[in-house]
Structure formats: C-alpha cells, structure tokens
Amino acid sequence: MKTNSVAVVTGASQGIGRATALRLARDFSAVVLAARNKEDLERTAADVNAVGAESLVCALDLRDPCSAEILVKSTLDRFGKIDALLNIAGAVPQIDLFEMTDAQWDDGAALKLHGARRLTIKAWDALMASNGSVVLISGSAALDPKPGFAAVAAINAAIIALAKAFAEQGIQDGVQVNSMVPGAVMTGRRRSFLDRWAPAHNLTVDEAMKKFPEEAGIARFGTPEEIADLMAFMVSPAAKWMTGVSVRMDGGEIKGL
Hints:
By secondary structure, this protein is an alpha/beta fold.
C-alpha cells in the first residue's frame, strides 16, 4: 500500500540506485532522484511517475560540499519532508593497492563516503521530524579485502562504521540507520569491469560471466532489483526496530561469521 511518504535516492540514474527508486515508487508517494546525469535521471523519473509516484530530479555531484544542502532544500521546498534517505551513489576505483595515487583514494572517498556523510547530516533534522530511515550502501569487499580492491574495501568498511555511528545518535533522535552490503550484482558498472577482466584472464566476456561467480563461490550474479527489494524492506514499517545493522546480501560469497 502506498504511503504519503518521501524518499530520497542517490545514484538513481542507473544500476542499484535506479532499481531502488523504482521499487520505492510502489510504496512511497514521492521519490527524489539524485545523480550527476540529468538525462538518465529524467528517464528514471518517467518510470517512477508511471508507477504512480511523484518525482523530483536533482542533477548534482555529491562530491561538491554544497550539493547536500541543495538536495535537502530542494526536497523540502517541493515536498515538505523526508521520510527515507538511501545513500547509493558512489563508485570506488578498482586499482591495485600499490599503484593507487592519493588523488584516486581521495576521489573514491569523496562521493561514496563523504557525500553520504554530508547528505545524512544535512537531512538529519528532517529525518528527526518524520522519525525517518537511512540506508548507506557498502559492499562485500569491506568484509573480504583484496589488494586490487583495497580502496573499495577500506571505503566500504568506513561506510559500515559510519552507519553504526549515525545509528547510535539516531536511537536518541528517532532516526533509524542501517547499512546494506551487496555482493556481486550485475549492473552496467559490473559489465564494464568484466569487459576489462575477461581479456586479462584470456577469456571472452561470456566466459567471464560464468567464471567470475564460480571464483567468488556463488551460483550467479545478483540483480539490482533483488537489492532494491531488500532496501525497500529496510525503510518499511516492518523493519522499524532494526537499527545499527549491516545487512548482507551476496549469494553466499562471504563465508565467515
């Protein structure tokens, strides 16, 4: 049943962010869509509207320290409240630990970590007013670091810690905060990675599509829609007592406790 609620989704132009925006449009009356590519956001907005929810497109770069305030103000000016914030934007370079420059480390953290941190802080008062929910997206590399994914692992681990810190404050402020840890999900970015990974391992892309999950110890890649369904639950009334939790969905990739 659709509620009179407003969700803000970053990274909404593609992949998991787009799938989450479309999924939330089934439950929320309005979805605010944030990312850098306006044309892609407008396509997502049209699909959100087709599901029966209002949409607001905010084309901005969350690496810019001013963007969080702009996004929150635009949302409140249009809808008057924020009930859920889903921090999904952010890609971290997959570069070998010994080859990454300081600039590449900084750029990886600028959007996924600091962008989410600033936006959550700027939205906090509105979330307090609505007893709202926040999800920060991490990734399974945080739990199983490898040299080629060092920055990915470090920044995703920081996301989990940041979410727990926000959750501790949220207990007294009435804001629910959790993190989501997806595994290998087949997005456009994943496909681009496989296009590079395949020839480096003397494989065709089709062969890599099969071999990569096998090496990860999973049956298949996940889909953005599967992650979106879980995040929709995490900001639903049914999950309201869940806070400070890092929820993993990875097809069994991480075998440790």
